[in-house]
UniProtKB/TrEMBL annotation:
Transmembrane segments: none annotated. Keywords: DNA damage, DNA repair, DNA-binding, FAD, Flavoprotein, Lyase. This is Deoxyribodipyrimidine photo-lyase. It catalyses: cyclobutadipyrimidine (in DNA) = 2 pyrimidine residues (in DNA). Pfam families: DNA_photolyase. Gene3D superfamilies: 1.25.40.80, DNA Cyclobutane Dipyrimidine Photolyase, subunit A, domain 3 (1.10.579.10), HUPs (3.40.50.620). It is an enzyme of class 4 (lyase). GO terms for biological process: photoreactive repair. Residues 19-148 form the Photolyase/cryptochrome alpha/beta domain. GO terms for molecular function: deoxyribodipyrimidine photo-lyase activity; DNA binding. Belongs to the DNA photolyase class-2 family. Its cofactor is (6R)-5,10-methylene-5,6,7,8-tetrahydrofolate; FAD. Its EC number is 4.1.99.3.
């Protein structure tokens, strides 16, 4: 078998019958290094065609023109790469629970393969499709090096509890990807997608404009190569300096599946860049896969209720504490706080679709300190994160916000007003770590 069977999970009990195979591409929007696509290709074999479909949901919560623009540019590239292999690509708009079963009926498909995705909304789509299909629906985890369902059957407590589990299985799963074989059977002919018409017909929030990060698999691979050559060696010592530009800036490519995290892990593992290599693999594999673990096993991952009990208790005990400042979501959104450093972070995110990771922690913690309640702070931080970050609406966003505001995967610290025993951060701490004035000057406070 091309794909390790432990990556594959059946989502319904319907049979796989002879016929075309439909790969419902969703989280992993790429042609190369894609375990789901490889599995679908293998199931189709020489006798049946493989067809790839993407279901465009026109009103995905929080998504704006910035996100649709980046995603559609990447998908146009996928269509071209698949065409070169004789594999048809079909883009349909609508609710996956309706679109996918209809397409299966049109094609007479014998089975459907899709991507693993732990987010509640995506799991809901998959459940609807699984229920409606008369044929097998299989999920393949091509987003994690160690498949999320294999790492642990429960929500892990913290990085220190998931780390040994990932490290134990890492060698088994960190394998080179096979190439995707061209189509062997006669495939249904399919007119190419009219990308211009599709873009023109989009009715999405255009107030958040596209950014100049180039989308697609080639651009992602080039970004990875540049990072490994130029910055991985200094990643361990410089990654927490928002002025240094030392991190990979690959998160949007990972979010849209335009490059496999496993490709980045293979490149880092082969780089011989010592400490930088270990520090990068910790973020890329342990921290990122901890986020998938949390969202998979915690049905409240998108609300404050997903936080640990000790943190909810301490935040509640400090609910009535006076706030030094109290801002509305609009004031936060417009970068109109008293703090030039906070405003600069918000500006970086609004303009570029990316905020440095160290600033994300400070940014979210101050939203807690300057909002009227923890619930409002959570809603504001998640909404702004998902609206402006190109990598938003991701398990990492849910976890990052809950880590900052509500102690997820962390432990209690010294008690303070508003925060209770949730870990505190202040501007003085930032100034000890990096040149905050330079950051403010760059982004405007
Ligand atoms: C409040 C808050 C919100 C966040 N929102 C998001 C989000 O919406 N989407 C998102 O992808 N990340 C989010 N993060 C996690 C992290 O900040 C970003 O992944 C990282 O800054 C992206 O930059 P990079 O690709 O240069 O990272 P690098 O430092 O180069 O790391 C490589 C990869 O490892 C993963 N990674 C890095 N840091 C973390 C982390 N702390 N937790 C989990 N995975 C990590 C990412 O996939 C990243 O691309 C958030 C963190 C916080 C504190």
């Amino acid at each position: 078998m091309l794909v390790n069977p432990a990556r594959i999970h059946r989502l319904n009990a319907a049979p796989h019958v002879p016929g075309p195979i439909l790969y419902w591409m969703s989280r992993d929007q790429r042609t190369a290094d894609n375990w789901g696509l490889l599995h679908a290709r293998e199931l189709a074999g020489r006798d049946h065609p493989l067809v790839v479909c993407f279901c465009l949901v026109p009103d995905y919560p929080g998504a704006t023109l910035r996100h649709y623009d980046f995603m559609l540019s990447g998908l146009a590239r996928v269509e071209a790469d698949l065409a070169a292999l004789g594999i048809p690509f079909i883009l349909r708009r609508g609710d996956p629970g309706v679109v996918i079963p209809r397409l299966v009926a049109e094609l007479g498909a014998g089975g459907v393969v899709t991507d693993f995705d732990p987010l509640r909304i995506k799991q809901g789509w998959q459940r609807a499709v699984a229920l409606a299909l008369p044929v097998a629906l299989m999920e393949v985890d091509g987003h994690n090096v160690v498949p999320a369902r294999q790492v642990s059957p429960k929500q892990e407590y913290a990085a220190r509890t998931i780390r040994p589990k990932i490290h134990r299985l890492f060698g088994e799963y960190l394998e080179e990807f096979p190439a995707l074989e061209p189509q062997a059977a006669a495939a249904p002919s399919q007119p190419p997608t009219d990308w211009e018409a599709l873009r023109a017909g989009l009715d999405v929030d255009a107030a958040v404009s596209p950014v100049d990060l180039v989308a697609g698999e080639d651009a992602a691979r080039e970004a990875l190569a540049r990072f490994v050559t130029d910055r991985l060696a200094v990643y361990a010592e410089r990654r927490n300096d928002p002025n240094a530009g030392a991190t990979s800036r690959l998160s949007a490519y990972f979010h849209f599946g335009q490059i496999a995290p496993q490709r980045a892990a293979l490149a880092a593992a082969a780089s011989g860049r010592g400490e930088g290599q270990a520090a990068f693999l910790e973020e890329l594999v342990v921290r990122r896969e901890l986020s998938d673990n949390f969202c998979l096993h915690n049905p409240h991952h998108d609300t404050l209720a997903g936080a640990p009990v000790w943190a909810l208790k301490t935040l509640d005990e400090h609910r009535a504490d006076p706030r030094p400042y109290c801002y509305s979501r609009e004031e936060f959104e417009g970068a109109r706080t008293h703090s030039p450093l906070w405003n600069a972070a918000q500006n970086e995110m609004r303009r570029t679709g990316f905020m440095h990771g160290y600033m994300r922690m400070y940014w979210a913690k101050k939203i807690l300190e300057w909002s009227s309640s923890p619930e409002e702070a959570h809603a504001t931080a998640l909404a702004l994160n998902d609206r402006y970050q190109l990598d938003g609406r991701d398990p990492n966003g849910h976890v990052g916000v809950l880590w900052s505001l509500a102690g997820l995967h962390d432990r209690p610290w010294k008690t303070r007003p508003v925060f209770g025993s949730v870990r505190y951060m202040n501007e003085r701490g930032c100034r000890r770590k990096f040149d905050a004035d330079r950051y403010i000057e760059r982004w405007g406070g």
